[in-house]
Amino acid sequence: MLQIHSFVFNPLQENTYVLADETKECVIIDPGCYDAEERYELADLIETNGLTVKMLLNTHCHVDHVLGNAFVKETYRTKLYIHPTETAVLQSVKVYAPHYGIFQYAEAEPDAFFQEGENLVFGNQQLQVLFVPGHSPGHVAFYHAAQKVLIGGDVLFRNSIGRTDLPGGNFDTLIHSIHEKLFTLADDVTVYPGHGPETTIGYEKRTNPFVGVSSPRP
Known about the structure:
Layout: E1 3-9, E2 14-20, E3 25-29, H1 36-48, E4 52-57, H2 63-66, H3 69-76, E5 80-82, H4 87-96, E6 112-113, E7 119-122, E8 125-131, E9 140-144, E10 149-153, E11 156-157, E12 160-161, H5 171-182, E13 190-193, E14 199-200, H6 201-207
Parallel strand pairs: 3-4, 4-5, 5-6, 10-13
Antiparallel strand pairs: 1-2, 2-3, 7-8, 8-9, 9-10, 11-12, 13-14
């Protein structure tokens, strides 16, 4: 059974996820841990639960989602996987990070790439890669069909959506991604976003003012 552990890291309040199961294998998604205390929090979870890190995954490569990439790679000797279209986004972080007040960013290069529709396997679990650009050009989400869980990054939030004014962002593309890739999932799929609380596909269909497709229930 999939177990979901989450942290809120760095000044931008980014959600980092560790997915594990009964085999003790896990994946780390979007490690935003920046300072020593945050790195300790993540490492303590791994050690306390006796987990083995099989993969490091980025939904996308904006600064707040990649601050812990180097730490995870070096500590757990694991590979970093991103969508190939995000390569330039990742490489640009070292240039603009100081503008966010981040002066100790440790760069980490990707080791491998995933593509739309690919299944990523760890333990007894499978995550399907969904290509959902718009917030960034190579943004993906990870769908766990067996438990109806979506790790969505910065595409769809509770009653909001990802911003599209950053380089490579596009509003129309984002809306298309949400309607064609996310809103085609079942209403009871739980969405774990890159910021803020979890939500469900059905709730966002009914209430999200940016992309809602039906009237709110009375």
